[in-house]
Specification:
- The strands form four sheets. Strands 1, 2, 3, 4, 5, 6 and 17 form a seven-stranded mixed β-sheet that branches. Strands 8-15-9-10-11 form a five-stranded parallel β-sheet. It has a three-stranded antiparallel β-sheet with strand order 12-13-14, with no helix packed on it.
- The protein is of the alpha/beta class.
- The chain is elongated and about 70 Å long.
- Helix 1 runs parallel beside helix 2 and helix 1 packs parallel to helix 7.
- The chain is 26% helix and 27% strand.
- It has two domains: 180 residues, FAD/NAD(P)-binding domain (3-Layer(bba) Sandwich), CATH 3.50.50; 99 residues, 3-Layer(bba) Sandwich (FAD/NAD(P)-binding domain), CATH 3.50.50.60.
- Helix 2 links the parallel strand 2 and strand 3.
Length: 301
């Protein structure tokens, strides 16, 4: 039995493995190699690694783990998990089941995109979810906030940090904005497009225009989606984790969950979805796991 199994090999999972490896804990890190940011060319806002491709970061993370003999990295898919007394059993796609005293889910989220032509084509190449991650590269260009209601208004106003040419596109949800919302957007120079969106077009490499069903269009260098539209790993529900309205796990101190011995770190937890924050959450979960195991082991002596 391992001290800990970590499911997910992004910044959160890799950093959790690193800290636990340095604590000489036996760790199995399982990752299927299909990250949410696979299409993203660069990872921004990461201290000393600003602009590094995600695949390069993951490869370096695995290389760092290789110097710790108690940490095993395995390319595999975790298809199920359950509690067994005070421990956990994780079922893998190859039919094997591995067990550990503690479990970290660093599985991230699955991004659901609007069912509009072009959004999937330009995902991570003009269609984004986080202006803190990708806004700077589109600064002073025409930007679109895609959403409605309170979340749409908030995102549109947020985008004015990076450009003064911002449009809130409600995609045929004009009734989601109050008169006060419209007045506030107008005061801040944000345009509003209420028409139904037909497609997103570009040159094959970059977004150029947002086309509407009525035949009109407008220039667009990047589209930012409102929070939501993400699904956590099925393991989260299978293990009985509480969920927030946004589909994330409302973790407590050191990324603990309502399930004893289970930790959730990274994008699937409650905090902002930055790579550097995910890595920090992985470290905090690892610290808590080592502390718990130390207390349990010394109490028996």
């Amino acid at each position: 039995m391992y001290d800990a199994i970590i499911v997910g090999g992004g910044p959160a999972g890799l950093n959790a493995g690193l800290i636990l490896g340095r604590c000489r804990r036996s760790v199995l890190l399982v990752d299927c190699g299909d990250p949410r940011n696979a299409a993203t060319p660069r990872t921004w806002g990461l201290f000393t690694r600003d602009g590094t491709p995600p695949a390069t970061l993951r490869a370096q993370g695995r290389a760092d783990l290789s110097r710790y003999p108690t940490v095993e990295c395995r390319t595999a898919e975790a298809t199920g998990a359950r509690r067994e007394g005070d421990a956990f059993a994780v079922r893998l796609a190859d039919g094997r089941t591995e067990r550990a005293r503690r479990l970290v889910l660093a599985t991230g989220l699955h991004q659901d995109l609007p069912e509009v032509e072009g959004f999937d084509t330009y995902w991570a190449r003009g269609v984004h979810t986080c202006p803190y991650c990708d806004g700077y590269e589109s600064r002073d260009r025409p930007l679109v906030a895609y959403g409605h209601g309170h979340a749409g208004v908030g995102l549109a106003l947020e985008l004015t940090v990076w450009s003064r040419d911002v449009t809130l596109c409600t995609d045929d949800r004009a009734d989601s904005l109050s008169d006060a919302d419209r007045a506030r957007l107008a005061r801040n120079g944000v345009g509003i497009a209420d028409g139904a969106v037909a497609r997103l077009t570009g040159d094959g490499d970059r977004v150029e225009r947002l086309a509407f069903a009525d035949g009109t269009d407008r220039p667009c260098h990047a589209v930012f989606l409102t929070p939501g539209g993400c699904r956590p790993s099925a393991l989260v529900a299978e293990l009985g984790c509480d969920l927030s309205p946004k589909g994330t796990v409302p973790t407590g101190d050191y990324e603990s969950t309502n399930v004893p011995g289970l930790y959730v770190a990274g994008d699937a937890s409650r905090r902002v979805q930055f790579a550097v924050v995910a890595a920090a959450e992985g470290a905090m979960a690892a610290f808590a796991i080592n502390t718990e195991l130390l207390k349990a082991d010394t109490a028996r002596r």
